[in-house]
Amino acid sequence: MRELLKKYFGYSEFRPLQEEIINNTLEKKDSLVIMPTGGGKSICYQIPALNFEGLTLIISPLISLMKDQVDSLKANGISAEYINSSLAPQELNIIQDKIKRKEVKLLYIAPERLILEEFKIFLSELQISLIAIDEAHCISEWGHDFRPDYRNLKSLRILFPDTPIIALTATATEKVRQDIVNQLLLKNPRIFLSSFNRKNLNLMVVKKKKALEKIISLLREYQDESVIIYCFSRKDSENIAQILKNHGFNALPYHAGLDIEIRRNNQELFIKNKVNIIVATIAFGMGINKPDVRLIIHHTFPKTIEGYYQEIGRAGRDGLSSDCILFYSQGDKRKHEFFIDKIEDEFAKTNAKIKLSQVMKYCEDKSCKRRHILKYFGEEFLDSNCGACDSCLSLSKPENEIKDKEIRLDKSQDTKQYDKRLFEKLRALRKRIASQKNIAPFIIFGDVSLREMCIYFPTNKREFLNIKGVGEKKLEDFGNLFMKVIREHLEGSDIASKSIIEDNCRLRSRHLSKNYQKTKELILKKLPIKEIAIIQKVKESRIIYHIDKLADGGEKIDISYLLPSKEILDKIKSAFEKFGIGQLSPIYSYFNGEFSYDKIRLVRSFIKLDAGGIGENLDTNKIIDYYSRLKKIKENYTNAYEPWKQEDDEKLKSLISKNKTISEISQILKRQPSAIRSRLKKQGLIQD
Hints:
By secondary structure, the protein is α/β, with parallel strands linked by helices. The protein has 5 domains: about 1-195, 3-Layer(aba) Sandwich (Rossmann fold); about 200-410, Rossmann fold, CATH 3.40.50; about 420-495, DNA polymerase, domain 1 (Orthogonal Bundle), CATH 1.10.150; about 505-630, Arc Repressor Mutant, subunit A (Orthogonal Bundle), CATH 1.10.10.1390; about 645-680. The protein has 32 helices and 13 strands. The relative contact order is 0.07. Residues about 395-415, about 505-510 and about 610-625 have low confidence and may be disordered.
């Protein structure tokens, strides 16, 4: 899976839970995934789609988001299309023909499409390998964004009873989760609940006094950065946008009352970085996939915690530090109550009042805002101080004027210094290419990728491929253009390219979190991993991950007492010398799954620590050759280097009992003869 992740998406490691979710999906089991915006939900069905033989169907209520996601997938070299009301009949026919010819791996559709009998007949004639339902909370009337069209989605289970379904959402209380499972007819789904803690978001609540003056002051600190300002009404949206224009800001309104073409154009200009400020009602945001929004302002607080969490989730989707400022007042509370009182359904009215009171409690809470919001979603925040909300930063008087030191809360996530002059040159190049291709700039490369280029200055293909977010297709399409700018920038300077691996190993973990610090203390006491995991109340694999990150940070720890036997240690170390320490999957595959990822990661940590945190004797260049060889091998043996499952072992035993030769078994199981021989020895079915 990691090979696909790097090849198509340019990432070396999965984010938390992604790999578990993907494996569950590949086993053709149903899943419910609750993961915050920016947590990487899309990867959870996009990677399985590349593995499955048939088509993956994705249901999304957001037409504009479909286009961005399809454009992004195509830029990564993945065949994807969308079908919705924006297509002309001729375009629809072309796409359907491509689907019939099996030239499409992922198809995005809107839920209302399933009302059409003709379309359901079209789907029934296809090989659907996976169904992904995005924004799954929309199916529940207990949620904050109920959409009746989503109730038609249960027909998919009837049409495709044996096809796995993965339902995904950023926000869902326990009641909403159960409703999703029931409404979609999920079969014994595994529920994956990711942490709701968006560490890169700085949360600030401010009493609404001279709000416009404060907003104008704020925006001066965010020149050329993408900003969304949420308002109560259409009138507020237009008035504030005009005031900002009068003050020289590049701002546009967005609300449901605008002509559809104006609305679409305003959103397009924002996504393509031609306008950097959108002043909107809650009608805006769900349909964008823009990763580089650096500031979210709520001019009026939202009606629900779920709505608030989803709206601030549009900030910092790329993981870089971003700020969220919420203004509140009793006057705005009365505005909300006025409209709630007009709701005729008593159940809905009562529910709306409860949710509004929960928002006010959040606004007026003097304790940690992060702890408050995480508790609402059933998650415990154990740290005594989050260091990134108004309460924890001791801003005890929210009515004070906002000053720079108050809004630029904690930027510790962005500690690496990058060449800002080069960044602007690369950003200009990105914008130029995006304009030529008529796509959003972030589809070319995100800010995270550009910043890494401005830290490591890659000037050849190997170095460029090591940049986060650079896969094979983007290397081929854009690598030379960006490297040319980098080389020109370096001419006449004494700056040299740096190794990402070496640089990461030199980093010092100056601000260890409480959990990492505790793990370090227990290792210094020479406790075994099992005991540390029990004390920390996490899985053993998580402790090994802690150790790896402590090694990256150059922490002085001795883990020699945790290592496997010298024979195993030497074998794994020799493999790292062969392939480099950049990724674990080549090592895992090299040994045909003989050693677990945890064991391999632990040995890698030891190598980093043993080399003084540099890993200087390891050649990371060889990893690229490894992928080329792997691709060639898989042309003849499609299951080569894949993990052995229980059913594989049972089949292997059955075939050897029938006196099949190793060559014959190799052809049946689609694995190399050497792998078959190695597995038979391990199972004790043949002798050395």
